[in-house]
Amino acid sequence: MKDKIHLQLCIPNTQFKISIYSADIIFLHILSEILQPYIYEEKIDNSCIDKQYGNLDTHDIVIGVEGAYKKYKLEENTAIGQTCRILQGIQRSINPWNLYHGAAMHIKGKTIVFLGDSGTGKTTLIAYLLNTSKESMYLSEDVLIINSENNMLIPYPRPLLLRREGKNLLQEKYCISFDYASCIAYGEYFRYVIKSSSIFEKKYTVDGYIKLKRNESEHFYVDKIIENRGDTILSSCYLPNNIRNNVISSIKLANRSRLYEISYSDLDLFAKKLYNIIDLL
What we know:
Elements lengths: L4 E6 L5 E7 L2 H10 L4 E4 L16 E7 L2 E7 L4 H12 L6 E11 L2 E6 L6 H11 L3 E12 L4 E3 L5 E4 H9 L10 E4 L2 E4 L11 E11 L6 E4 L4 H6 L8 H14 L1 E7 L2 H14 L1
Parallel strand pairs: 7-13, 13-15
Antiparallel strand pairs: 1-2, 1-3, 2-4, 4-5, 6-7, 6-8, 8-9, 9-13, 10-12, 11-12, 14-15
C-alpha cells in the first residue's frame, strides 16, 4: 500500500468500518462525493488531482466487522462499480447515486449522456468529438455516476480504451492522428489519456440522454423516445441487484430529461445532427 492515499468510512447503525487505499486521486475524489455522509476520516488532497490523474492501479478495500476483516483488490476499470456494490450490500442507503454504463460529454454548454450496448461506438464517438470540436469536453466514459434526485453527474474521466477497429477508423476515414505518448497499446485496446481534471471545478446537470445504435447503411435516424423512457435508462444500470431502487431512479431521471435514439454510421453526419439536437435541449 505504499504511496497510496487513505479514505476511511463508517456505515451508520452498523459495525462496519471500511478503509480504502488507492493511488488514484480521482477515484477517491469521486467516492468521497458519493459517500460523504459516511466519511469519518478523509485524507485526500484535491489539489493533487492534476499530479495523479487516471493512475492505472488497483484499489485495496478493507471491510472490517468486530475485528474480522475481508480484503478486496479491485482493478481500475471496475473499481467504482464494485466498491459501490460492496457498500450497497451492507447498507443500501448510499442512494440516490446510481451507476450506469455509458459516456458523458459537455458540448456547447450542455451535458449529454450517451447510452448504448458495448460496440455501438461510444468511445470512438468521444475520441472523434474531442479531436474535431473545440466546444466538446470529456466528462466520463464507461462508468456514469448520476444522482436521481437532481440529475447531477460526477465526472469520472478515465483514460479511454479505444478498440483497435475504432482507432483505425478514426485514423483512416477521418484523418485523426494520435500522439503516441497519449495513445498506448493496452492489451487488445489502446489507452487514450485525456487531461481533463479541471472539470472538477464545476457541477454538471444532465440535459439529455442519447441512445446510440449503429447501422451499416448511409441512412441516419433520429427519434425522440416517448415510450418506455425509464426502461431506456434502466437498461444501462450497473447494479441490477437493487432492482426496485434502480427502477425508481431511472424513472426519475427520464422524467426530468429529453431522450433520443440515434442510428448512424457516419461520424461527420452524426456530429452535425448532434449539434442540432443540443440546440433544442
